[in-house]
Amino acid sequence: MEIKRAVTNRRAVTLLFVFLGLFTILLGRMAYIQITKEVKGHDLVAMAEAKYNRSQVLESERGAILDRHGSVLAEDVPAYNVIAVLSDSQGPTQYVKDPQETAQKLAPLIGMEEGELEARLTDAKENGRFQIELGAGARNLTYEQKKEIEELNLPGILIQDTKRRYYPKQTFASHVIGHHNSEDSAYNMGLEASMNDYLHAEDGHIEYTSLGKGLSLGAGSDRVTLPKNGADIYTTLDTSIQAAMEQAMSQVEAEYEPEKMTAIAADPRTGEILAMSNRPSFNPNDYRNIENYLNLAVQDVVEPGSTMKMFTIAAAIEEGEFEDDSTYQSGRYEVDANSPPINDVNRSGWGEISYAEGFQRSSNVLMAKLVLERLGMERFYSYLKQFGFTEQTGIDLANEASSNVVEGRRADAARTAFGQNSTVTAIQMIQAATAIAGDGKMKKPYIIKEVVDENGDKLRETEPEVAGEPISEETAKHVRELLRGAVAEDHGTGKAYNIQGLEVAGKTGTAQIAEDGKYLSGHGQYLYSFLGMAPADNPKVVLYVSVTKPKLDDNESGNAPVSMIFNSVMQSSMTYMDLEPNEEELLQEAEEQGFEMPHLAGERVDKAAETIPGEVVVLGEGEHITDQQPAPGTKVLPGDRIVLRTDGEVKMPDMAGWSSRDVMKVAALLDLTPEFKGNGYLQSQSIAPGEPIEEQALLDAEFASNNERDKQEDHDQGEADANDEQTDEQLERAFEGVEEPVSEGDEEANTEAEQNDGDQSE
Fold first, then answer.
1. Given this model, what pLDDT does residue 211 score?
2. Which of 45, 83, 408, 548 is 20–30 Å from 75 (CA)?
3. Residue ranges of the PASTA domain (predicted)?
């Protein structure tokens, strides 16, 4: 018994030690797991979070880009992506069963070849892929495209909600606004790129702990990171003026097929850019087909031609070296023994003529005499610097080009004086012209009006800035009088720009183009331009237009395509900006006594109309408001006309007797291109009341005062005497012998431009 008891005890002790060992190992393992939180390399915390923690994205919205009145130029809109599920793990009807049939029906709707789509689906299926995307054509689809695909009822073809960047006005200030693509930043440009820090949005998210089957532990466990929407960029662009510019440039592009074009409209009182456009242009909604990435108005340098002469005489007048009735011998001028002579377009000259007539005839000889004999080279170059031609303007657009003002010999100064040899940018020409238009005060150009965050707080606001005062008020007025004469006088070179009922002041220009080391020659092989302002006595708009290498008829001058753009844009600008009687008083009264327009988008029309103390005009047959004019936040007077657009079909209203400002409200809401004539109140409209509206349709509107009807018919701009438009044959004689390239240090190259005797049209 004792032996048995001893054996039993030994076994019990052994089992006890085994049990204690196992228990120690278990405790050790538990302690290890507690400390390391890992099992076989798996992170237990991560596994628990993956099982019980949930996260939901709160989508943000990229900031919009708008014009000065709040009309949207770029915004985020709903979009849809198509994907194909290839695995049967989600059920027999939730995957692509037949790649051939799927490709046959789907390929035409996503812009893909049927064979390519079938091959992509088949390869992915054979490689065991769960799902795939279907290429660029299946991304960022519109609602209409989404519905078409859904109606096919294709197994395994799913549509995901997303957002895309949309440009509602399409080819509209495209190089200014630019393009944004979050998936392909190589195409990003314009304000979309340079202002991205403001426009950029950050998604938020909600994190919560789930008990399974969609049950949450409660709000106390939720961790919320709110989305941060991008700020809105308000530009100085005016949709009405920009639309007129785009329409005119498209017309010239179709008719004359120029190599390139540039146009800029600015308010000389502030420096605000009202419109800016280039050709070739592009539709940012179709960004992959961009041909020209350069904003030529800011990033291209050219010889300015005779438009530079307005700044040469401004310097001479300021220094007391120009008197209207002083005379000189026109035709030919000898610079020095080492340089070719400078000639006028009329090589035999117009005899001994006054300085005023010489400028209006665009005499190169007069410019050379002023700089070399009266003003002096040092003072002349000093004024070019004061006018801003030796440095960038600093406009708030990316990649501004640098000019090249050539200094050195007498011939360099003489040629620069009439716009040859030295190169400048179009935006420099605009900035310098604001000094002449603005009584000597030169305004820095800008295009960003303000940046407003989602809470309505202003993150940035641009104030007008005086960039310099190169000339006095008296000199500026004198120059404007001479510029008016260049347009209105019989011997002036700018008669094509003499708009009936509007006093335009300005200067024409024709510049040679250097290619492959030589200046081009031949009919139409020049850069034709006009730099003008209106009204001449108190300019409210400065406008520069250039057209390069247009295809002209044999008897047609370079003024034809340039004036087609300038006259249309200037007339529309003046009509829109300053035609209503006592407009300034009305605006002041609205500021003092008016009410602030609320944000009405999404509201019911009948409810909104009851809250607005004014005349309400509804465009469309829907029940809910989608857009409004005036924009939210605008001060208006009780009784002012309020125009609301709804989500239904829209037809043209009868606007007889409306003011130009009210007509512009309709044009802005319906995305129409306005073309206005006359002053006062609407007498006729090209789109009849009740007609359906097409996007970007042309709206011709004629205005007249209530007291007097305009009885004068539009005169024929093509009727101009020999002093108004000279032939290319004369220009060829002026450029005769010019073949060498312009390069610093090359004696022959530095003499060519002296042969330019003025504008082809002069």
1. 55
2. 83
3. 591-648
pLDDT of amino acid 41: 58
Instruction: Supply φ then ψ for residue 510, to 5 degrees.
Output: -135, 125
Please check whether residue 370 is in contact with residue 413, taking contact to mean a CB–CB distance below 8 angstroms.
Answer: no
Mean pLDDT, rounded, for 597-625: 80
Q: Which of 30-39, 428-437, 457-466 shows the lowest mean pLDDT across its residues?
A: 30-39
Looking at the structure, give the CATH architecture of the domain made up of residues 57-195+217-235: Alpha-Beta Complex (3.90)
Catalytic residue among 306, 339, 546, 573: 306
Q: Which residues contact 212 (CB under 8 A, 6 or more apart)?
A: 52
Residue 448's alpha-carbon distances to 26, 65, 169, 274, in angstroms, are 70, 10, 19, 11
Q: How confident is the model at residue 48 (pLDDT cuts 50, 70, 90)?
A: low
CB neighbour list of residue 158: distance below 8 Å, 6 or more residues apart: 82, 83, 84, 85, 131
Q: Which long-range contacts (CB under 8 A, 24 or more apart) does 690-696 make?
A: 690/651, 690/652, 690/654, 691/651, 691/652, 692/649, 692/650, 692/651, 692/652, 693/650, 693/651, 693/652, 695/671, 696/169, 696/170, 696/243, 696/671, 696/672
Are the beta carbons of 434 and 271 closer than 8 angstroms? yes
Tokens for 184? 């392909």
Q: What is the DSSP letter of 744?
A: T
Phi, psi (rounded to 5 degrees) for 46: -65, -40
Would the pLDDT of 33 be above 80?
no
Look up residue 102 and give its two tokens. Answer: 């799927």
Q: Which of 135, 387, 373, 169 is nearest to 281 (CA)?
A: 169
Helix or strand or coil: residue 633?
Answer: coil
pLDDT bracket for residue 745 (50, 70, 90): very low
306 among known catalytic residues? yes
Tens digits of per-residue pLDDT, 574-601? 876 654 434 444 555 555 556 777 878 7
Whole-angstrom distance, CA of residue 313 vs CA of residue 356: 10
pLDDT at position 582: 42
| Phi and psi based region of residue 225 (left: phi greater than 0; alpha: psi -120 to 50; beta: remaining) | beta
- In this structure, what DSSP letter does residue 211 have? E
Cis peptide upstream of residue 741 (ω within 30 degrees of 0): no
Q: What is the CATH number of domain 239-282+303-579+719-755?
A: 3.40.710.10
Q: Which of 343, 347, 350, 386 is nearest to 368 (CA)?
A: 343
| Residue (of 363, 312, 315, 761) closest to 566 by Cα position | 761
Beta bridge partners of 273: 266
For domain 583-704, the CATH class is alpha beta
Domain ranges of the chain: 2-53, 57-195+217-235, 239-282+303-579+719-755, 583-704
Looking at 139-257, list the stretches that DSSP marks H as alpha helix, in order from N- to C-terminal side. Answer: 143-150, 174-177, 190-194, 196-199, 239-256
Average pLDDT over residues 700-721: 49
**What pLDDT digit, counting tens, does each position of 106-164 carry?**
888 888 887 888 788 787 777 777 777 777 777 878 778 888 888 888 887 788 888 88
CA distance 500 to 515: 39
**Cα–Cα distance measured from residue 295 to residue 282, given in angstroms and rounded to the nearest whole number:** 11
Average predicted confidence (pLDDT) for the chain: 81
Strands 673-678 and 698-704 come out as parallel
- Element of type H or E holding 385: helix 377-386
Handedness of CA 250, 256, 259, 260 (dihedral sign): negative
| Cα 414 off chain centre by | 36
Residue 750 vs residues 360, 520, 740, 745: alpha-carbon distances, Å = 27, 16, 9, 8
pLDDT, tens digit, 9 for 90 and up, residues 494-513: 999 998 888 999 999 998 88
